[in-house]
Structure formats: structure tokens, C-alpha cells
Amino acid sequence: MTARPGSWQAIEAEVLRRIHARDWPPGSAIPNEADLAQSFGVARATVNRALQSLAEAGILDRRRKAGTRVALHPVRRATLRIPILRHEVEAAGQPYACRLLARDEAPAPEVVTQALRLPSDAPLLHLRALHLAGGAPHALEERWVNAAAVPAILSAPLDTISANEWLVANAPFTSGDFSIAAANATTDEAAALACQPGAALVEVLRTTWDGARPITWVRLLHAPGYRMRMAL
Amino acid sequence: MTARPGSWQAIEAEVLRRIHARDWPPGSAIPNEADLAQSFGVARATVNRALQSLAEAGILDRRRKAGTRVALHPVRRATLRIPILRHEVEAAGQPYACRLLARDEAPAPEVVTQALRLPSDAPLLHLRALHLAGGAPHALEERWVNAAAVPAILSAPLDTISANEWLVANAPFTSGDFSIAAANATTDEAAALACQPGAALVEVLRTTWDGARPITWVRLLHAPGYRMRMAL
DNA sequence: GAGTGGTCTAGACCACGGG
DNA sequence: CCGTGGTCTAGACCACTCG
């Protein structure tokens, strides 16, 4: 488990140790790369690799000329892996299924068109699907797809493959928003998810873009008991 | 905005372009580093930097000898910044306050001791606090601190500084778990958060460790309307 | 202006792991 | 075995930004 002496991981661990040991307290400046390299007996590039890793993790603040400082408030970052629902379910050892509940091209609500920065009369494909895990409802998906950006979706076999999965394979995106909140189940949602009306549900909102072109807006309502886990 | 030609960012962008353009479709192998370096006219280390960046982002799968492949299912990662609550509130332009509701050393529930992998009779400090934003309830915090690992907390002025902030400054951690779920407000919680009983609340569970030593377990209940946002 | 991090190069050796 | 990625080195130049 211990990194090879002289490796950048070893340097990283040693720097971390000194920070935790308060040798280098929060807010203080640490020696520059050249000095550290000499004192550790490695090349500067190796020190650079270690410090960049720590900076990326938010442990250090680095600025040219100003030098490297221990972050005053180490803003912790958690990385959330967002799997395809099918994979998530199957990874839990349960059979997955997806049922297409609705599909139409009705005009989208303002919330959606505004989030996608599209005119309110833009032609959007509307989909509603229920994801099942082991026969039980897992999540309810409400989706709007920008048909202008992904015309092929109009002829996609969405009763065979979930829109989620089809889009991942056919419409790569470059950026997006992702947010999590809690919502009480409406009577309709409760019926679809086989839970009590008013039950607390995890609500995930996602918008994706390919460059400047909006691709899709989706709202996922997870069945009660759902929990998103990450490591710190 | 465009990266300098020959920089690793430029290589990264070009590789990304070829992936999006389906020159290198999902699952396919791409040339090895040496070949790419030659064709791009840069050193192998530069190509390595670019490909490592893409691998870290989940776009590429890299294995020694097996080479580099375009990830079949680009598992998207969202990085969530976990700020100190006070900062989060103040960043929203609202005055922050924290009220300590309870503090005792009663035995902890099994859920807590098990999550911390401690014997069920381990001495834990129990805290309950209400975080306020602009005078309105923002989040309810239920916390258990491993007094054995952080004895100084027993004499910390927790009516002045939130336990959250005190721990960040005085008890660095090396790893932790983080999970998000939704919960209906109990009558007690509703009273504290000034909302309706049964309201859907975002529940955050966090456990932190310093090496093998458990530090703290905390449950945060956010007031209705709370939303965690991240970029993809 | 000058110090510091950011990056590139050319070359080398190593570790992993597929065939 | 041996090809591929992972990493280290020594040296160099650049870019940013603080003073």
C-alpha cells in the first residue's frame, strides 16, 4: 500500500502528512517546487506532479509567483458516478426493465424550454418512462429531447432501449447541469412508483448540451429508499 | 479559449474531437502513445498527459499492454463541492447563524456506532444544531463525534462556532462516506425547520475517518426547497 | 522585473498483464 | 515473453502575476 520512495505518490503522502501534522498549517506557504525537489532528492517534475494532484483535490492553492499554500478551507469534493440506470440496477444484482409510458410531441412547459434556453415553441419530443428493478418500480423518468439537435431519436426504438441509453450511445454531450432535491410524491407519481402519495422521493434534474446545442432535459424521481452514495 | 498547438490540452481536444466524430467509436482501441506522439509531433509525455486526463474523466480506458480504448459507456462523473454550511449560506448573500440545540454524551444508536465501526458503548459526544440562513431554518444537524479520536472537542466553544467548522479546522480527515437521500419530516423535525410534517427533505449522511480512526457521523436535514447543484 | 508554477522534451527504466 | 502505459530525470522555456 505504501508508495515507492521517490515516487510522486510518496511525495504527495509526505506533504499530506506534514499538513495533517500542522508542520504546514492551513493558510501557510510551503517551499517552492525547486526547494522541495532538492530536499526530497527528486526532480522538480516529480514534486510538480504531487502538488498538482493535491491542488486538484483542493488541499493546496497554487498560483504562479505567489507560490503554493495550504488551503484555508479545504473544500472537500465528492465525485459522484452517474451510471446508466440499467447498469446501476444490474450491478445491484436485479433484473432491469424499462417501460415507455408516454411519448408525444406536445409543447414543453416553460421550465423546460427555459432550462434548455430554447424558444417556448421549440419542437421537443416528450417521453415518460418507468425503470424497473426486479419487477418493482425503481425510478420514474420525465424527459424532453431537442429533436432539432438529435433528429434520429424520432425513429429510435425507444420501446426496446431506454432513451437514457440510446442518447448515451448516439448523442454525446460536452457539458451539463445536474441537481438533486427532495420532492413529495404526487398521487400520479405515487401510483406509478407504487408508493404512498406524499412519500419523500429523491428528485434528480439533468440538462445536457453538445457545445451550445441543448440536447435533453430530464427529471428522475427515484422510488422511496433510494440513496446516492459517494466517497470523499 | 483554444489551447496552444502542441500543448497537452490541444492533444486532449483533438482526441475528444475524434471520439465525438466517431473516428474512434466507443469500445475501439486508439493508437499507442508512441505512435500518437509521432503523428502529433510532440513528446510521448505530452500525449500521456492528455490521455491520462481523459482517462481520469472516464472517457478512456487504459491498461498496460492492452492499450487505450474509448470507454464503452462513458460513466459520467459529477464533482460535488461540499462547502462549510456557513460559506454556502453567506455565498447566497444571507446572514448565517448556528444554534446549538442539544449536547450530551448519551449512548449512540446502533446505526451510528456501526457506521463508525465502534463498539456500541463507545463514548460519543452527541450534538444537535440548527443552521439558520437569514433567520430562517436552513438545515438541522445531528452529529456524533468520537471523543476518543478528538478529545479537544469536549472543551470546544460549540455555542460560538459550529461543530462542522470546528472539526474542519481541528480534525482533518483522510477519507469518508457521503450519501444523499430523501426523508419525510417528522413532527419534531418539522417544528425545528418550520415546515409541514411529512415535507420532503434532502437528507445527507456523512461519515469521516482519519486513517483508521473514526471521527464523526453526521446527518443533515435540509429545509424544503434545498437543491444540490453540480456541473457535469 | 523577477520569482514561481506550468509545461515540453528526449531519453530511460520499470511494472503490469495479455497472449 | 514483451508491448504498453506509468513514471522519473535533467534541462529548458514559457506564462502568469505579485510587488
Category from helices, strands and their pairing of chain A: alpha+beta
Oligomeric state: homodimer
Secondary-structure element string of chain A: HEHHEEEHEHEEHEHEEE
Mean pLDDT of chain A: 91
First-residue to last-residue Cα separation of chain A:
19 Å
Q: Can you give a write-up of this model?
A:
The structure is a homodimer of 232-residue chains. The first copy, chain A, folds into two domains: 8-70, Arc Repressor Mutant, subunit A; 85-222, Chorismate lyase, CATH 3.40.1410. In chain A, 32% of the residues are buried. Chain A is an alpha+beta fold. The first copy, chain A, contains seven helices and eleven strands. The two termini of chain A are 19 Å apart. Chain A has helices spanning 8-20, 33-40, 44-56, 85-91, 110-115, 163-170, 187-193; strands spanning 29-30, 60-63, 67-70, 76-82, 96-104, 124-133, 136-146, 175-184, 200-210, 213-222, 227-231. The radius of gyration of chain A is 24 Å and the shape is elongated. In chain A, strands 5-6-7-10-9-8 form a six-stranded antiparallel β-sheet. In chain A, strands 1-3-2 form a three-stranded antiparallel β-sheet. At the A-B interface, α1, β4, β8, β9 and β11 of A face β4, β8, β9 and β11 of B. β8 (175-184) of chain A pairs antiparallel with β11 of chain B. The structure holds a DNA duplex (19 and 19 nucleotides).
